[in-house]
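Sat 14:20. Reprocessing the chain from the morning session after the first attempt stalled halfway. Input below, unchanged.
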Amino acid sequence: MAEAVDAPFDRPDVGFNALEGWSWIGCYGGYYLQCDLLGGFEHGFFTRQWQGRGPEVLAGVISAGVSVHRPSQIHGAVVLPASGATAAPWPEADGLVSDQGAQSLWVCGADCPPVLIADRSSGRVAACHAGWRGVAGRILPEAIRQLEAAGSLRGDLLVALGPAISGPNYQVERSVSEQVALALGGDALDLKLAALEAVSAISPDGEPGRDRLDLRRAIRLQLEQEGIAPGQISSCPLCTLAEPLLFHSWRRDQVKAVQWSGIVAQA
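Finished this time. Tokens:
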């Protein structure tokens, strides 16, 4: 049986005890993270401990008797109904929205933020792989739009931003920062860039024409502009690049390996 634990490894430098709002869950197969904000929903952000085990196995870790739904991710902003992603060949998309109960929705990543959304009123859920291209393409506003079309209210949505590369470790070209900024509402580009800088989503880099980009901070700003209150959003403090014992990181290792994140719809 899974249960919350203080720390899965005897490593005082990893910082497991500083995860305010997040809990490590231990079970027979290893440890995974849950976001306290989504405590009413079966869900999990898995680590590299689970390498080689895909959603078909991981679904049984967080729940029982659920169907498995996953996209073939293409670093885009397409969001599909979960019922259209039930078997290989998996449809090309980077987000899924539940359209029935007992569906487990899965996305994977190795530096890009996995984002799980839950409607605390209806039990509907969404799962998105939110890399910079997805954020620039407004994948999360699209997932919210689809949840709303099904009857959800924005005030009922809870959003968990999982482990991802941190801003200080993520160097990007200025053109990438500009594309992320353009996905924000209102104002001219220079004002949008200033808004990202104000929340430390963009910070200076030593190389000309480059920035340090914190995608989770950029996502939070975008969500708040979409009417999601700060108290409805929780961001995991762990950096995939900085925690080699826990997470795969493309930027660190240049190896194609991922960790999975999933959530189960209640209705």
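The first helix runs from residue 55 to 62.
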